[in-house]
Specification:
The protein has 227 residues and is mainly beta. 0% of the residues lie in helices and 45% in strands. Strand 15 and strand 16 form a beta hairpin. It is globular.
Length: 227
């Protein structure tokens, strides 16, 4: 499933890795078909979980577990990605980072955490991450997915997706996303959800002037994600 979207962006001309930068590219995901089942309870209580008889349960927030990537631009200057711990979870349970980027985890909660990446225990510096503190590490290998968790808090888990692209961003609750500065050229837009990449890509052509919204349709999430 491939869609062709021509995107003409505007803004101050800049250069990244020798290519002219046209400006921001933004859009909104079409979430019409993107329904997801509520996950099972993390722990078993004395009684089985039942639906609230007075008010319907709030739908699962699928966009917090999504990132959007424009493939076609190697990470020439990957920079820094900030990933926040808020309360008892990550602000974005799924976070993307260009290969080579510095990932800065900020603990905005009031609880110390000891984080570890299951796929590479040496990725995150050892020791507790204290409240209001931060830890940083560098992503060196593209096309890797790391599961970051705290062994003392089974509910706290995040996915770090390292991509071979300069352009990767999160999605807000309404499905909106934006890439700050994009170089003129042709790209393929991909969507990562929860554990893997969704089926289908969107062809995006970025021109030198003007602006067009990109509104990719998200497929059903029940069996779409691929590792």
């Amino acid at each position: 499933m491939t869609f062709l979207v021509r995107v003409a962006v505007f803004g101050t001309a800049m250069f990244v890795g020798g290519a002219a930068v046209a400006g921001p590219v933004s859009g909104k995901l079409d979430l019409t078909a993107a329904t997801a089942e509520r996950p099972p309870a993390a722990t078993k209580g004395w009684l089985d979980r039942v639906e609230n008889p007075l008010a319907p349960a709030r739908p699962v927030n699928v966009t917090s577990q999504m990132i959007v990537v424009l493939d076609g631009a190697k990470p020439s200057s990957p920079g820094q990605v900030t990933w926040e711990l808020v309360g008892e979870s990550f602000g974005h349970p799924v976070m993307g980072a260009p290969a080579g980027a510095e990932v800065l985890i900020k603990n905005l909660s009031g609880t110390a955490r000891t984080l570890i990446a299951a796929e590479d225990p040496k990725l995150i510096p050892a020791g507790p991450l204290n409240p209001k503190g931060s830890k940083s590490f560098r992503t060196t290998e593209a096309n890797k997915i790391y599961t970051v968790s705290d062994s003392e808090a089974v509910h706290l888990k995040g996915k770090l997706v390292v991509v071979d692209s300069q352009y990767v961003t999160t999605v807000d609750e309404g499905g909106k996303f934006e890439f700050g500065e994009v170089a003129e050229g042709s790209y393929k837009l991909r969507i990562f959800y929860k554990d893997g990449w969704l089926d289908g890509t969107t062809d995006v052509v970025v021109g030198a002037k003007g602006k067009t919204e990109v509104n990719p349709k998200v497929p059903a999430l029940t069996a779409s994600a691929k590792k």
